[in-house]
Amino acid sequence: MIPAMKLVEIFESTNRIEACMAEELLKDQGIDVLLQCDDAGGLFPGMESFYGCKLLVRPEDEEKALGILKSTLGNEDI
Known about the structure:
- It is a single chain.
- This protein is of the alpha+beta class.
- It has helices at 16-28, 48-51, 62-73; strands at residues 8-13, 34-37, 53-57.
- The longest helix is centred in the N-terminal third of the chain and has 13 residues, at 16-28.
């Protein structure tokens, strides 16, 4: 059995494009990131505008990832 990995949420948006851009920004900086969007497996595109998209990272990458997003997006609310 593979042990579950603990991840922390660092970003949420109801705009999938914004979430994908933030995901790529973090990947470019060498941070492993999981984009979690609920669109019923592609069956209902746009559904994420109701439930949002989340970015998840390892706890040890949380501070660095938040710093990158804050400095790039210029949003202190992240």
